[in-house]
Amino acid sequence: MSDISDSVRQQIRRLLSQGYRVGLEYADARRFRTGSWQSATVTQGSESTVLASIASALGEHQGEYVQLLGVDTQSRTRVLELMIQRPDGAVTQVSNTKINGGKTSVASSGNSVSNGGGTDVARAVRDLLSQGCRIGTEFADPRRYRATSWTSGPSYQGTRDAEAIAMLSELVANHPDDYVRLIGIDTHARRRVVELVIHKPGEPVTLSIGGGSSQKTSSFSSSYGGSSVSSNIKTSLSAEVVASVRRLLENSYQIGTEHADSRRFRSSSWHTCKPVSATRLQDAVAQLETCLHEHEGEYVRLIGIDTQARRRVHEEIIQRPQK
């Protein structure tokens, strides 16, 4: 039976106190590279029962990756994914944190990341970039937030934390009345490693940058919103649609489409089209154009799907019948 660090014990205690279910997944080095995790059994019950079950599982899977899961059984969504064991035996140290829903915080390697008072988004960004992760974003108005229906925002793939923070500042400034969250994406495993709400409606439009704060005072240029789409792709699609497709691809979401004639549109009865299989922007745009041509005279909408969470993250009508 393996020992569990005090920081991991605290994290488990918080999950249980907030009514979340605790789970585990494991993977050997090969499966880890492909993001193919297997579920481990965790006996539910008191804190001591859960801890004993997890300690036993860590011992059984020595030499493998093991991650701790926090699951909201009502919404059937994960609120936490945290690596707690690696093949070399290293275990992630988790600082004092709270789970998504209150003052959100996800932390690893002893570095705290939180929103609300004393926010330190910069540290989260640095940690993610230092690990080679991509920075993604999502936003939602209060109604969509309650339904867990997020829209993809811009993303950053690079190594300069100042540029990533500038992108986040710009997004928050553009969405003062929305919820905005930061996404950390492991591009190799094609999975999310962090989901962190960094802004809520009614909060000041600022981000804490290493103890200070950042307004929208950056020269960072992104393809988000009404900004120009820096691409040489020749397409009949609008710049906004191309930007949406780019963001979905950058965040490793599956792209799909649906179509409906006027009668079915009024009853919200959509037909599913063939999924967009391309991973390159130019190819994805070409497949979308083919879909639009095949369903000329109908409504067509673009769908972004988080295949791991099995939920939609984006819906956008990209064609309407001409009157």
Automatic annotation (TrEMBL):
Domain Ribulose bisphosphate carboxylase small subunit: 1-87, 109-201, 226-321
Pfam families assigned: RuBisCO_small
Residue span of region Disordered: 205-230
Protein name in the entry: Ribulose bisphosphate carboxylase small subunit
Composition bias type Low complexity, residue spans: 214-230
InterPro entries: Gamma-CA, RuBisCO_ssu_dom, RuBisCO_ssu_sf
